[in-house]
Write a structure and sequence with these properties.
The protein is of the alpha+beta class. Helices cover 40% and strands 17% of the residues. It contains 16 helices and 21 strands. The longest helix has 68 residues, at 51-118. The chain is flat.
């Protein structure tokens, strides 16, 4: 290359350099150089013919690096999202579990502690043993064990199992486990619950006779009118010797009744009885027996006081017991002179009599109907017989209480005793009122009828409606429950005595106790059974049901008679010789007679005097 050409080439390069800078190649060179070592060779190559190819190669390399970096960033972001979601899920689960535990376990526990703190749960309501044994059944463990038993039966059981019966027995066993503390807990099949309800209403399949245990065989106490037993000729006082050829002398009464006497309607049995020393054979066809829920009568006629000769016989029979009879009256003792002619002037129409077999709605409705038709406006006093009444529905008991009590009475206070007019006091000098005299008040939880049994005390913070007649109230283990008040606008304004004995329980004790609290009746007889708890029946869609104890109940004055019984105002023991005969021969009913004497002395004598 000559000098002219070399000069020309340098001028051409000088002329192109500003153009390159103007076109932006300068910055591109800087961007490319930053990615390679700063060597002279690199700079020369950049300005060589392969400049465009180098730029393309560099761009491709950068793109590949970006593409490689993007998946890594995506993966890192995905892992962060997964971790964040897992943490949120775990936190939500933990919080949810804590909330569930607090709701199902923590809150009731605080309620229980609060109830104890407020005095709602006394030592009798929630004992230490109950508090220590609050663990519920472990259903997963039970289910697993049942599955293993089922596998064993499936593999090795010789016979065919009955799955339905097995299920029923599992449920029965579950409720049976409560019997130590709750003797009223039970599981009922659909058929059993129907039969139980019918029994409570006095309807059952059998012969229609009441029997009691007696040496030598069951004694027939009473034969219901129109029953299969009456149609076959069975009489009160007969002693059962054999049933279908089986001697019953050494068998228990429950076994005889449930397995030999009761049965399907239309079937029959042969019964051999001892009647006044002679054996009599009877063929009795079983049927549906309906026991009357209530019975009405006139006391003078029941005691046969209109017959002078019969009166003399009665006085002679009872004179020995009455001459020096010691009558216990709420802890005190008084001697009463016999006065065998006290009822000589008692007339039919003076004292009415009503008995109630059980507290279910049909019986209470019958009781009220008989009162309105035979007692109201026709008698001067009334004796209500609740002896042997096992109780029944709370709603039925409150309905009858509402009928007898006015609607606006103040909540009563507890009383120690009420003095009664007895035969030692002259009717001419004293005419005690039915309200009696209020004794000194006792605090809740004080001395009860049976000092060995601690009385259950109600929640002292319980609030009641003012100016309304409280009939009863209930409390559960948390000190909460329900109140019942009078509201029908009706009341019975008659002197009343209620008869009770050791077989009067539950709702009958409630009725008598409430009437006592309001000074609307006196109670004669013996200490009652002592059932101051309420059972609840819960039914299932298949017709079965469970029953268990849920509440204590209290009379308006705050008394709970559970395991103590209701203490009568006037204790009258039935003579042992008459305990099995008074139902069929009222002339031997000493408790009825003593109640009639008290009513006559206190309320009727002056009215009958000329």
């Amino acid at each position: 290359m000559d000098a002219n050409e070399e000069k020309h080439l340098r001028e051409e390069e000088s002329r192109q350099e500003p153009e390159k800078e103007a076109s932006g190649l300068g910055p591109e060179v800087v961007r490319i150089e930053t990615s390679v070592p700063e060597t002279e060779e690199a700079r020369i190559e950049t300005w060589g013919p392969e400049t465009e190819e180098a730029r393309i190669e560099t761009s491709r390399m950068e793109t590949e690096e970006v593409q490689k970096a993007e998946p890594e960033q995506n993966i890192k972001g995905l892992w962060k999202g997964v971790v964040f979601f897992f943490l949120c899920f775990t936190l939500s689960f933990v919080l949810g579990a804590l909330l569930c535990y607090f709701y199902f376990f923590g809150f009731p526990k605080r309620q229980e502690n609060q109830a104890i703190h407020n005095g709602a749960a006394s030592s009798s309501t929630l004992s230490d043993s109950n508090l220590e044994n609050l663990e519920s059944i472990n259903l997963p463990r039970v289910t697993e064990k049942l599955r293993k038993i089922q596998d064993l039966l499936t593999d090795s059981y010789l016979y065919q199992e009955n799955g339905k019966d097995a299920e029923e027995m599992i449920y029965k066993g579950f409720l049976t486990s409560l019997l130590q503390e709750d003797p009223y807990a039970a599981y009922y099949t659909k058929e059993e619950i129907e039969e139980t309800r019918n029994r409570q209403k006095g309807i059952y399949k059998g012969i229609g006779a009441a029997v009691s245990e007696k040496e030598g065989g069951p004694l027939v106490e009473y034969v219901y009118p129109g029953s299969p037993a009456e149609k076959a000729g069975l009489l009160a006082g007969d002693i059962v010797l054999k049933v279908d050829g089986i001697s019953v002398e050494s068998l228990s009464l429950n076994y005889i009744v449930e397995n030999l006497i009761q049965g399907l309607a239309g079937s029959s049995l042969e019964m051999v009885v001892n009647r006044n020393g002679e054996e009599v054979t009877l063929r009795i066809t079983r049927g549906e027996v309906v026991i009357p829920g209530s019975e009405v009568g006139d006391v003078a006629e029941m005691l046969k006081l209109g017959d002078a000769e019969q009166q003399a016989v009665v006085d002679a029979q009872s004179g020995a017991e009455q001459q020096n009879e010691t009558v216990s009256h709420n802890g005190g003792e008084k001697q009463t002179d016999a006065g065998t002619g006290v009822l000589a002037s008692l007339q039919p129409g003076d004292i009415g009599y009503l008995s109630l077999r059980g507290f279910y709605m049909e019986a209470v409705d019958s009781f009220i109907s008989q009162y309105e038709s035979d007692i109201d406006g026709k008698k001067k006093a009334l004796i209500i017989d609740l002896r042997g009444n096992p109780g029944g529905d709370v709603e039925a008991a409150t309905k009858l209480l509402d009928y007898f009590l006015p609607d606006h009475l103040q909540k009563p206070k507890r009383k120690d005793s009420r003095p009664l007019q007895t035969q030692e006091n002259s009717p001419e000098t004293s005419n005690a009122q039915a309200t009696g005299t209020e004794g000194s008040n006792t605090q809740y939880g004080g001395e009860s009828a049976s000092p060995s049994v601690l009385e259950v005390t109600p929640n002292p913070n319980r609030q009641f409606e003012k100016d309304k007649t409280l009939l009863l109230y209930t409390e559960d283990k948390w000190g909460k429950g329900k109140d019942w008040y009078a509201k029908d606008g009706h009341e019975v304004d008659l002197p009343i005595i209620i008869l009770m004995n050791q077989n009067s329980a539950s709702a009958s004790e409630l009725f008598a106790g409430t009437m006592q609290d309001y000074d609307r009746a006196w109670v004669f007889g013996t200490q009652s059974y002592g059932k101051g708890i309420v059972q609840t029946v819960r039914s299932f869609p298949d017709g079965s049901a469970v029953e268990f104890t849920t509440h204590y109940y209290f009379t308006p004055a705050g008394r709970n008679i559970h395991k103590n019984g209701n203490t009568p105002d006037h204790t009258v023991e039935m003579p042992e010789a008459d305990q099995f005969t008074y139902l069929r021969d009222r002339t031997k009913d000493l408790q009825l007679r003593k109640a009639a004497e008290s009513l006559y002395i206190n309320f009727i004598h002056d009215k009958n005097s000329p």
